[in-house]
Amino acid sequence: MSALTVITRAGEEQTVEGKCGVSVMEIIRSNGFGDLLALCSGSCSCATCHVYVGPEFYDALPAMREDENELLDASSHRTANSRLSCQIAFSDILDGLRVTIAPED
User: Fold this and answer.
1) Which CATH superfamily is 2-101 part of?
2) Residue 30: what pLDDT?
3) In the chain, where the domains are located
4) If 0-12 CB within 10 Å is exposed, 13-18 middle and 19+ buried, where does residue 90 land?
5) Which keywords annotate this record (predicted)?
6) DSSP state of 102
7) How many CB atoms lie within 10 A of CB 7?
8) d(CA 41, CA 78)
9) Over the stretch 54-92, which tens digit does the pLDDT of each residue have?
10) Which tens digit of pLDDT belongs to each residue from 7-64?
11) What are phi and psi of 30, to 5 degrees?
């Protein structure tokens, strides 16, 4: 089992199974984390799936596309480890990934 650890806005931490080829956003939503709204359902148009990626995995992620970068720029909670979880396809390389759900804008 590949693992994805999700930290909620309240600081609660839960490890769930990460399925290869499925977006981190979909994994989080399918495991009942209500903090992650993901209003656009993964079309990279709303930034309501904003997460902070654990620094040990940040460089393993695919490069950020311009549309994702622009959406994150609009967030007042952007950090160096910010990503949109809809743009991260889970894979074996990401086994053990930890993400924190960002505050709402």
Assistant:
1) Beta-grasp domain (3.10.20.30)
2) 95
3) 2-101
4) buried
5) 2Fe-2S, Iron, Iron-sulfur, Metal-binding
6) P
7) 18
8) 20
9) 999 999 999 999 999 999 999 999 999 999 999 999 999
10) 999 999 999 999 999 999 999 999 999 999 998 988 899 999 999 999 999 999 999 9
11) -70, -15
Whether the CB-CB separation of 97 and 90 falls below 8 Å is answered with yes
pLDDT of residue 42: 87
CA distances 7 to 30, 49, 70, 96, Å, are 15, 13, 24, 13
Q: What is the separation of C-alpha 26 from the centre of its chain, rounded to a whole number of angstroms? A: 9
pTM: 0.94
Task: Give every strand in the sheet of 13-18, ordered side by side.
Answer: 13-18, 2-7, 97-101, 50-53, 82-84
Q: Residue 62's closest CA among 16, 100, 23?
A: 23
Q: Partners of 2 in the beta sheet? A: 18
Residue 64 tokens read as 């950020």
Residue type, 60: A
Residue in the structure block whose two tokens are 């089992």: 1
